[in-house]
Amino acid sequence: MLGIGRKIKKNFVFFILSYVKKNFSKKIYSFFLFLSVIKKFKKEINKRKRNDKFSDKLDKINDYEYRITSQNNEDGIIEYIFSNVPNNKFFVELGFDFFECNSLNLIKNGWNGILIDVDEDKCLKMERCLKFFYPKNNIKILNKKIFRENINELIFSNTDEKKIDFLSIDIDGNDYWILENMDTRKVNVICCEYNHWIGNNTQRVIPYNNDFTYKYDYYFGASLHSYVNLLNSRNFDLVAVDSSGTNAFYVKKNFSQNFKILSPTNSFKKSSRFHSKDEASKIQNYVLNCKFINLNNK
Predict the structure, then answer these.
(1) At 255, which CATH number?
(2) 202-227 tens-digit pLDDT
(3) pLDDT tens, 233-263?
(4) Number of neighbouring beta carbons within 10 Å of residue 171
(5) pTM above the 0.90 mark?
(6) Are strands 247-252 and 187-193 parallel, antiparallel or unpaired?
(7) Do 22 and 99 reside in the same domain of the chain?
(8) Residues 5, 124 share a domain
(9) Are 138 and 82 in contact (CB under 8 A)?
(10) Are residues 121 and 215 located together in one domain of the fold?
(11) CA atoms in the 13 A half-sphere facing the CB of 12
């Protein structure tokens, strides 16, 4: 009965929001969106630290992992990295959810920055929630689709900051190509999601497609080695791979002497905690039969 009640409530909220969106201004619609998520947002930002590890194959930096508002344990890694990298508390995050992203815990700790996502509702929810809970922070939220042709204009026309202390990219698709085309000279630390299903010791990436839409089928992005080689060429070193096998962190060589520089082969981790061995095997076989560009052959 409890499950039925929740479903009825969810359907009612959906009906109200759809009606308001169709018949009222965006400002009024965003207010109703805010009312529908304020409890969840408040609950998420006030959660206790969790530091469960998701792999037995850990590096020393994984000892610092914890999660509050990040998807996995990125919050702790980010905090540790910036305890060793001078910063002005400015971030840019490409792709986010309104209650769960790599920069939300930074915002809680006084950081300013830019959030960009193609989903209008996510942007409206985040904008309202941040204004309510963190009115002193200077956060610019852009509801835009990110292409490799517009990435630099999107970021650098919306800030006067001389440095981007932290760049996080997770758009479930053309991430590699966006990063390849981005001017990273002003960036000190980068976090980007890699697709572990592609495998270790390989440089493969999906073909660039402006119309790519992630279908939740595990076909997206690029392999860890692809990112490592790209960012090595931009003077970044790999310093962390979170234990869930989702995100990897790269620090500009000016500061990487403060960390143990990792081998992508040895520090590669799989994200298998949600799948049985049989399920994981089927997913990996499916992904490996998808279309990729092999950067080793370029």
Answers:
(1) 3.40.50.150
(2) 999 999 999 998 888 899 999 999 99
(3) 999 999 999 999 999 999 999 999 999 999 9
(4) 21
(5) yes
(6) antiparallel
(7) no
(8) no
(9) no
(10) yes
(11) 6
144-189: per-residue pLDDT in tens? 999 999 999 999 999 998 899 999 999 989 999 999 999 999 999 9
The tokens of 57 are what? 């194959």
Domain that holds residue 11: 1-45
Residues 2 and 121 in one domain: no
Same domain, 12 and 152: no
Provide the β-strand partners of residue 93: 115, 168
Q: Are residues 150 and 261 in the same domain?
A: yes
Name the domain count of the chain.
Answer: 2
